[in-house]
Design a protein that fits this description.
Distance between the termini: 63 Å
Structural class: alpha+beta
Shape: elongated
CATH architecture of the largest domain: 2-Layer Sandwich
Strand order of the largest sheet: 2-3-1-6
CATH class of the largest domain: Alpha Beta
CATH topology of the largest domain: Alpha-Beta Plaits
Order of helices and strands: EHHEEHEEEHEEEH
Largest sheet: 4 strands, antiparallel
Helix content: 25-40%
Number of helices: 5
Number of domains: 2
C-alpha cells in the first residue's frame, strides 16, 4: 500500500518574484532540515510539485503537513533573492488547491502619488494591497497610512 500524500499551497511574497522550481526545492529542503532535522525530513519526504503564478505547491506525507508548513514560514531567500512563503491551504489533491489559486498580478491602475516632497509610483494589487515605490531609488521605502490619512487625500 502506498503512502498517502498531502499538498501544501503557499503564496510567494513579494509579488512578482520569479522563482525557479529547483531553487525553491533547495530552499524548502534547507529550511525543513534546519528546523526539523534530517530524520524528520526523510520521513516527511517534501518535494516541490510546481512553482508558477506567484504560488508554490509542496508535497509531503500525510501527518507531516503541519511541520512542513512551519518550515515554509521560515524561508527568507530563494536563489539569493529575498522571498517568503505564506501557507494558503492544505489538501489531499492538487486539483483542489488549483481552485484556491487566484491570479496575483498588479492591477492595471498604476499611477503616481506625492507624499510631502517625495514622488512615488503606485502599484495596486488584488485584496486591497498597495505598494508605493520611491522614484529614483532602487529600494522600496515602506509607508504606512491610517484611515485619517486616506480620507484626507
Amino acid at each position: 500500500m502506498r503512502a498517502k500524500r498531502r499538498y501544501i499551497l503557499a503564496r510567494i511574497l513579494p509579488y512578482g518574484v520569479a522563482v525557479d522550481q529547483r531553487q525553491a526545492y533547495f530552499s524548502v529542503i534547507e529550511a525543513a532540515t534546519s528546523l526539523l532535522g534530517d530524520a524528520a525530513v526523510g520521513l516527511a519526504q517534501p518535494a516541490v510539485v510546481f512553482c508558477e503564478g506567484g504560488y508554490i505547491v509542496v508535497r509531503c506525507r500525510r501527518g507531516t503537513e503541519k511541520d512542513i508548513a512551519t518550515a515554509l514560514a521560515t524561508i527568507t531567500t530563494i536563489a539569493d533573492e529575498r522571498a517568503a512563503l505564506r501557507t494558503v491551504a492544505t489538501s489531499g489533491t492538487i486539483h483542489a488547491l488549483r481552485r484556491r489559486m487566484r491570479p496575483i498580478r498588479p492591477l492595471s491602475e498604476a499611477g503616481e502619488a506625492q507624499v510631502g516632497e517625495t514622488y512615488f509610483t503606485v502599484y495596486r494589487y488584488p485584496r486591497q494591497k498597495v505598494d508605493l515605490v520611491e522614484k529614483g531609488i532602487k529600494h522600496q521605502k515602506s509607508l504606512f497610512f491610517t484611515e485619517a490619512d486616506l480620507e484626507e487625500r
